[in-house]
Amino acid sequence: MNIPNHQLRCLDCSSRNEPSVSDLSCAECGGLFVVDYLDAPDGVQPRLPMDDLLSANSLGEGDTPLVLLEKTGSELGLETLWAKLEFMTPTGSFKDRGSAILTTMGRDLGVREFVEDSSGNAGASLSAYAAAAGLKAHVFAPASAASGKLDQIQVFGASLHKIEGPRQAATDAAEKFVKERGLIYMSHNLSPYFSEGMKAVSYELEDVIGDGIDHVVLPVGNGSLLIGMVRGYRELLEAGVVSKIPKFHGVQAHAVRPVVAELNNEKWSQDDVQPTNASGIAVSVPPRLAEMVEVIRSTAGTGVTVPEESFTEWQSRLASSEGVFAEMTSAGAFAGLVKLIESGVIERGSNVCIPITGSGLKEPLAR
């Protein structure tokens, strides 16, 4: 096999590792990896960790619609408010971009069976892409996850392991299963390959509106979209295609807020977790917390939390006024946008983009 033109670099000690989906942490210090390419970006397409893009395990992800939300943008005093409809993908969430890359690398590096844990969307996505690649997937998910997401996991032929308790319990059970069975843990949260698939979002934005985005506001849990989009913009900047990187602002539920707490130097721990309808970002111990904080700060961005009622309020508001049925997790980003405008962090008259990361069809309505 022709190994792609990249290495893995430890985020903590900068040690180098050969391409691998089984090595998730540095043997020297235990840090997580990032993909480092040995060639320069061309600004035409994102650098990806495979030589032959035509051989990628794709189901048609990407090139999602970019919609101008004129009514909402006008009401909030913005010049433009764009919604990137990331739920317009094969399994209904942005995770398909990462699953395409991760399963391609797994397939090409000899994986035939793997373990993953997820709050729902990533598990559904990796199950679909595993089926397309001929891989066997074991997906660990909270028993409380939306039935639509759990049904997706099963219909794609993956083995679903429903775990009682908080989101972290599914991760713990998956790691135990890996040790007992000797399987590959292809965690989308730990693997450096998953977020590489997200870089294309930035390229697609640039292709349509160039430098016309001042701020990106998005929900953050494990941070793959945040990390990938900023990496995409860094490539575009290095290639001279754009002259600036938008400010990235992470939105979390007040009930589960490790990223925002770290950004704001607030004392917070897993013991402070409260129930939330924003299941997609209910991640109390994100493994890439330090990387997320660095990425946000590097763009002069911020983090903000929103109250629980705002998720359902904005889900209803977007559907009835704009015709967009967002998953509650993504709807919360609009509540975060309001707070950022009210606090003056985002100036009125700005150009803002919000990726709508999941479809409201995948979860029951909260009443």
Which descriptors would you attach to this protein?
four-stranded parallel β-sheet; alpha/beta; 3 domains; 17% strand; Rossmann fold; 367 residues; six-stranded mixed β-sheet
Could you explain how this protein is built, in words?
It is a single chain. With 367 residues, the protein is an alpha/beta fold. It is built from 11 helices and 13 strands. The chain has a 6-stranded mixed beta sheet with strand order 4-5-13-10-11-12, with helices on both faces. A 4-stranded parallel beta sheet has the order 8-7-6-9. Strands 2-1-3 form a 3-stranded antiparallel beta sheet, with no helix packed on it. Strand 10 (215-219), helix 7 and strand 11 (247-253) form a beta-alpha-beta unit. Helix 3 (121-133) runs parallel beside helix 4 (147-155) and helix 10 (309-322) packs across helix 11 (328-342).
